[in-house]
Amino acid sequence: MPDNLALAAQDLRLDVNLLDYLVLALYFLTVLGIGLVVRRTVHTSLDFFLSGRSLPAWVTGLAFLSANLGATEILGMAANGVQYGVQTVHYYWIGAVPAMVFLGVVMMPFYYRSKVHSVPDFLRRRFNGQTQLLNAITFALAQILIAGINLYALALVMGALLGWPLLLSIVVSAAIVLAYVVLGGLSSAIYNEVMQFFVILAGLVPVTVLGLIKVGGFSGLADKVRRSALGDPGLHAWAGTGSADTNPLGAHWIGIVLGLGFVLSFGYWTTNFAEVQRGLSARDTTAARLTPIVAAYPKLVIPAVTVIPGLVALVLFSDLGKPGGPQYNYAIPLLMGDLLPNGVLGVAVTGLLASFMAGMAANISGFNTVFTYDIWRSHVKKDRPDEYYLRLGRLATVGGVVLGIGTALIAAGFSNIMNYLQTLFSFFNAPLFATFIIGLFWRRMTAWAGFWGLLSGTVAAFGSYILFKAGVLDFGTELNATFWGAGTAFVVDALVSVAVTLATTPKPESELRGLVYGLSDASIADDTGAGAKAWYRSPAILGAGAVILAAALYIPFI
Fold first, then answer.
1. I need a labelling partner for 247 at 20 to 30 A (CA). Which of 126, 202, 280, 546 fits?
2. Chain-centre distance for alpha carbon 72
3. What digits encode the pLDDT tens for the residues 169-180?
4. What are the residues whose beta carbons fall under 8 Å from the beta carbon of 520, sequence distance 6 or more?
5. Measured CA distances, 119 to 134, 493, 514 (Å)
6. How far is CA 441 from CA 435, 517, 518, in A?
7. H/E segment holding residue 58
8. CA distance 481 to 487
9. Can you give the pTM of this predicted structure?
10. How far apart are CA 185 and CA 547, in angstroms?
11. Cα–Cα nearest to 280, from 291, 272, 265
């Protein structure tokens, strides 16, 4: 461990006692118990990978949100709160909710009713096997890298808070996730994610409330932020974004709206199979459509337990992120050690642990499905018995966890893990969104346009980042570089897709029914029940409500 991290670990050590360890032990036992119970329901590969498509919307919706509440969300957004102030809310109100609603209203029907098992499988049907394989490989790589972020962050926090050695923290956490995902597959991950959602909130709410009390409430916090390094710009979301040099985020409003609000956001929420998989496990089309929309409402208020603690940490710990001081990522652990009594401390540590495990379980369950179905079954070993793929899925889970342990060390080079995550999204999600959205709405787009567009967009994203790191391109902050890198990937993908389409032959419309907008498949029966047609269960109405609330929440922070 680097010297500054070792010093930070000493400063963070918590005075935990037997009561705190009992809370942790109870959580571990509950997680494993859920895995053992759910194992009895797993008989086929569909049960293991997609929960037999049997879950209600409120379960899949909370799991959808919890799968995103990993280490990068809890530690990363609090770190952004310290580093960028109130502008961090862009990741929620423009960078998440609109895309979640779009997924539920527009895209989920295509995923669910076509009976695909994954996003790469949809690309196979819309384009060809080569596009499927390319996306499957890049997605699998991204999930292993992101699982490594969760593991590394967990290891650092457990080492700092409890004194556990780095390797022990990684191995113990990985082993527990491995156990319950291998036992119960996606159902085990989802039911644990629902529980973990409430555990995470139980850990973060006391940190937020006690932190606000200590700094004198919202007015006291605002006064202290104005006197901090961020100054008054740290309390506004849009002020100063007419120039990249006059706001803490270092981003122009065009980059925020198009780079984050459109390309990165829609690219992540609408095509990331680790999230979409929760919707595919729903019991009918309406439940699948409601999955991201149910998640959008609590997503609106998550900044209260991530960004606000980040601002509190900014004014309480002046050395955060400075040379010789702890990383921005330590904002939440520092507050826990400073504010929480024993017992509550155990709940908070458990909440952090739950967030890491929920995020990693989502990564691993997405990885094992794509590896088994979209790489192995589609391109290596076809037409094997179902038991073969069920067994392979469990082996892929083991392999994914082992690889995640290896990639955990890559995350060590980033002081703010959210910057690292956004960089990965600009590489893998932004070009995928371009390929997907053009192919969904433009039936003329050809099979090879899907492949070459996706490949060129991915290469362009890598090239943009390499030129930024080499000093050839100046985007200011690393985070702003990901916004522009994502935009570059989208534009390059789109241009190449159009060029290749004009030079190649499209698929006949008969092969595109149910896969593109405006070409329905009459052979697919409507599975919507009578109760699902009520106005208060309408995805469009509920989705519009979430978007309106997201816009309204900006008003106090303009």
1. 546
2. 8
3. 777 777 877 887
4. 513, 514
5. 12, 18, 15
6. 10, 5, 8
7. helix 57-68
8. 10
9. 0.84
10. 33
11. 291
Q: Express each pLDDT in 14-46 by its tens digit.
A: 677 788 888 888 888 888 888 788 777 777 877
3-state SS class at 282: strand
Domain ranges of the chain: 2-517+542-554
SS3 at position 55: strand
Distance CA 58, CA 298 (A): 12
Q: Which residue has the tokens 């590896």?
A: 371
Report the CATH fold assignment for 2-517+542-554.
Sodium/glucose cotransporter (1.20.1730)
- Say if CB 149 and CB 420 are below 8 A apart: yes
Mean pLDDT (the chain, rounded): 84
Q: Angle between the 331-339 and 3-12 helix axes, to the nearest 10 degrees?
A: 30
Cα 437–chain centre separation: 20
- What's the CA gap between 149 and 439, in Å, rounded? 32
Read out DSSP for 321-352?
A: TSTTS--GGGHHHHHHHHHPPTTHHHHHHHHH
> Is residue 164 within 8 Å of 158, Cβ to Cβ?
yes
From the CA atom positions of the chain, what is the Rg in Å?
A: 23
Residue that is written with structure tokens 């629902």 in the block? 194
Q: Which CA distances in Å does 312 have to 83, 87, 210, 237?
A: 12, 15, 10, 17
φ, ψ of residue 238 to 5 degrees: the values are -115, -20
Residues β-bridged to residue 282: 55
Structure tokens at 116: 């695909």
Whether the CB-CB separation of 77 and 308 falls below 8 Å is answered with: no
